[in-house]
Task: inverse folding
């Protein structure tokens, strides 16, 4: 949902800053995703009127026009033969700079075949108005726009807003009113302490319904249907400023009638639809579709309907629209339309959602009806749209209006019943911890929100509202808390005399294990991210053919629970990579849902400087592999599970080029690897590089292993401090040292002692000035016939360490091996 700052200020008749509005939205709990500035440069572009036109005497394809700018008439040459005398055009004069379609054009006086042209008549393309409707394919004519016809000679900058701020918000699922701009303004009026003027609505009280026309509702899935017939309609583009506003809030301008219906939907949340009345025979019939009935829709697609769908038809059973979702292209608004039927209705949200999902049609209309828009909004919407139609087209006439309700609602009054909630103000004060709460102040705030408010006995407050999310007195308490603000809550110290020494907090081990890994990854410069649990099922097949699919998803993009946490982490990595973040290390803690719900940790590493930092991709993988490996070793070591109980085995995955499974006590709990080409094929427009490293850990399984390990006790663990003090890794390169020794004894029997001794020497050698960690020790090569074995030690330094010190450490270790096991260096 996009909000325009200019439109907000227009409704309030006040000049709020972007900071005022955004901060107020955040204060009342609205989820603001983003805001950005729109700037348009119309310097030296003027509104003109063509007063003379003739063919160029020296060029067959050029025309000489005289354009009136009120205080002067200038000669402008054009190749567009469609321009005529009295056309209103926009002209770029000397000094104007036009930037469009990667072109930059500086306007100057130009001689063309012997005649001077003092400017250039513009098309919508040259104005960067790609979605703006005007008359003419080349030079744009604006004869329909009174703002232009009444301001001949004015500069475009002076009559059209050149800057605006657009605020992007995410409506809450339980707040369908947040899909209506005006309903959000009601809440802003409370926070900004500024009265919001009422909307201008049409009054139908004096209308005489002599015209014979009927509406029949034959399905329980339509709750209310109102039809209004307008005569003397003239279809044309909306005025340019209105079109620019619609375009800025992501509504594509079509024509004046469709633009009004779309704007009122944006303004009041209730969708509307307009039909060419000349195609409708006898009456409107709202019914269930016939099986295999065909809809030829506005999106140029044909849909086969079922009896579960809602159809708007007439006495001839023509399919005029798929109720609440999309209209038919055969009976919509055309340039020749002169009479319209405006539809304002309320449909069953479950039916709309099921039809949208089955037919894969998701429109602005269906998205709103799915949220269960209050019935009352449909009445507001048609009254508002009727007012705007009369304002845009003063000669239009309302011939007929009729509202019908579903038989289950019995009558219109019942359909429009308000919800009543009663609350004791003293109870709310106690509930919120407020010492004072002025009744008049609360009444004023609730009135601004559009509630009908009564006070009983100076303490009981009664409100009547259409809001779906308000049902109980504590809901009203929440509203009061939102608008009073956090500063209204008083800090209160805990009574110092309370004795809580008997209380011994116990931390759940699963949470502690998650915290251990979370802190370890953060200490290694990973960024913590949070992804969606629900993803697209086709994408999830990349990781596993099994997944948990929803029967009735809100969208096909989110129709299944993720089978690996890595699935959402990869999408986050891809999104950030496309935004220009070429070097990133991210991790996510969350739940996956395959055979059962489990807690997982996933990580993604990519570095665009791979060729600069590493001699090859293998070195890059080993470096990052060791970081993950070290985190793993350190945490498990703190629980008494040492390195010899952890194995890395080569494995194969559909989406990985190179992969290793990680086993603890012979149980698989994780995998690590680099992605292959399939990942970018399954991600929409995926761009992740092939050297992207991924890691996925099953924390639920690891927890079971640790808890079942002998002598495990959570009280003995203090890994948070240990990680920060001893294992915090910084981005210094790993140090590799190889050495060869002669082992006369059985190699398998002595291997454990070799690892044990090097860790002892490491502990002995480290001090306050020199700090490093052995993160791997493994057999590199061997010649059994010579009893010769070559080992590699991988060292992670915490600060710069000289080669001399590393050699000193290695000598100390080898001397100890010789002394204790008669192992000699080769």
Result:
């Amino acid at each position: 949902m996009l909000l325009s700052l200019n439109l907000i200020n227009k409704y309030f008749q006040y000049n709020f800053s972007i900071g005022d509005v955004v901060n107020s939205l955040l204060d009342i709990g609205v989820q603001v995703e983003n805001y950005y500035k729109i700037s348009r440069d119309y310097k030296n572009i003027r509104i003109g009127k063509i007063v003379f036109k003739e063919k160029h005497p020296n060029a067959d394809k050029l025309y000489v026009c005289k354009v009136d700018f009120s205080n002067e008439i200038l000669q402008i040459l054009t190749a567009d033969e469609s321009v005529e005398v009295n056309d209103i055009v926009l002209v770029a004069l000397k000094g104007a700079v036009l930037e469009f379609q990667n072109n930059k054009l500086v306007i100057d006086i130009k001689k063309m075949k012997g005649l001077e042209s003092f400017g250039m008549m513009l098309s919508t393309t040259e104005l960067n108005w790609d979605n703006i409707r005007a008359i003419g394919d080349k030079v744009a004519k604006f004869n329909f726009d009174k703002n232009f016809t009444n301001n001949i000679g004015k500069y475009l900058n002076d009559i059209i807003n050149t800057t605006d701020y657009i605020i992007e918000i995410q409506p809450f699922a339980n707040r369908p009113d947040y899909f209506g701009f005006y309903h959000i303004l009601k809440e802003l009026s409370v926070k900004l302490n500024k009265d919001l003027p009422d909307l201008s609505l049409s009054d139908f009280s004096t209308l005489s319904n002599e015209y014979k026309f009927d509406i029949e509702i034959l399905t329980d899935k339509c709750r209310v249907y109102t039809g209004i017939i307008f005569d003397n309609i003239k279809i044309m583009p909306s005025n340019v400023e209105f079109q620019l506003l619609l375009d800025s809030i992501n509504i594509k301008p079509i024509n004046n009638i469709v633009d009004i219906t779309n704007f009122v939907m944006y303004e009041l949340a209730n969708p509307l639809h307009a039909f060419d009345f000349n195609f409708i025979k006898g009456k409107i019939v709202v019914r269930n579709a016939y099986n295999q009935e065909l809809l030829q829709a506005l999106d140029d697609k044909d849909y086969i309907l079922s009896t579960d769908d809602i159809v708007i038809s007439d006495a001839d059973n023509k399919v005029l629209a798929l109720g609440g979702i999309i209209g038919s292209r055969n009976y919509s608004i055309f340039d020749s339309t002169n009479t319209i039927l405006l539809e304002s209705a309320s449909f069953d949200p479950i039916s709309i959602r099921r039809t949208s999902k089955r037919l894969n049609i998701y429109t602005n209309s269906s998205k709103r009806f799915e949220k269960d828009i209050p019935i009352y909004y449909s009445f507001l919407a048609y009254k508002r749209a009727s007012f705007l139609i009369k304002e845009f087209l003063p000669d239009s006439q309302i011939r007929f209006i009729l509202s019908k309700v579903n038989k289950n609602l019995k009558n219109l009054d019942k359909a429009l019943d308000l919800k009543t909630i009663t609350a004791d103000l003293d109870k709310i004060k106690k509930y919120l911890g407020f010492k004072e709460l002025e009744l008049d102040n609360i009444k004023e705030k609730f009135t601004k929100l559009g509630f009908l408010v009564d006070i009983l006995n100076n303490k009981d407050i009664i409100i009547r509202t259409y809001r779906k999310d308000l049902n109980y007195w504590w809901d009203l308490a929440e509203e009061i808390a939102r608008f009073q603000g956090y500063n209204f809550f008083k800090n209160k110290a805990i009574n110092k005399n309370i004795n809580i020494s008997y209380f011994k907090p116990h931390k759940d081990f699963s949470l502690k294990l998650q915290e251990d890994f979370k802190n370890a990854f953060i200490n290694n410069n990973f960024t913590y991210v949070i992804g969606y649990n629900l993803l697209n099922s086709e994408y999830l097949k990349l990781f596993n053919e099994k997944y948990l699919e929803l029967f009735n998803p809100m969208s096909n993009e989110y129709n299944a629970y993720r089978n690996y946490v890595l699935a959402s982490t990869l999408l986050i990595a891809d999104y950030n990579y496309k935004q220009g973040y070429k070097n990133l290390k991210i991790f996510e803690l969350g739940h996956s849902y395959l055979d059962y719900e489990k807690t997982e940790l996933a990580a993604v590493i990519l570095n665009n400087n791979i060729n600069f930092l590493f001699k090859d991709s293998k070195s890059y993988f080993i470096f990052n592999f060791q970081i993950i490996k070290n985190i793993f070793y350190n945490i498990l070591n703190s629980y008494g599970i040492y390195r010899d109980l952890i194995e890395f085995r080569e494995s194969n995955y559909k989406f990985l080029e190179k992969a290793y499974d990680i086993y603890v006590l012979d149980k698989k709990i994780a995998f690590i690897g680099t992605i292959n080409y399939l990942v970018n094929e399954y991600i929409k427009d995926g761009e992740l590089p092939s050297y992207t490293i991924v890691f996925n850990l099953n924390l639920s399984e690891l927890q079971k292993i640790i808890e079942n390990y002998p002598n495990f006790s959570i009280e003995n663990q203090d890994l948070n401090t240990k990680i920060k003090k001893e294992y915090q890794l910084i981005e210094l390169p790993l140090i590799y040292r190889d050495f060869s020794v002669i082992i006369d004894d059985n190699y398998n029997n002595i291997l454990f002692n070799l690892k044990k001794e090097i860790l002892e020497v490491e502990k002995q050698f480290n001090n306050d000035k020199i700090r490093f960690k052995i993160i791997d020790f493994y057999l590199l090569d061997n010649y059994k016939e010579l009893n010769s074995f070559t080992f590699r030690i991988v060292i992670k330094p915490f600060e710069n360490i000289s080669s001399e010190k590393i050699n000193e450490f290695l000598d100390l270790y080898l001397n100890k091996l010789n002394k204790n096991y008669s192992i000699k260096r080769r």
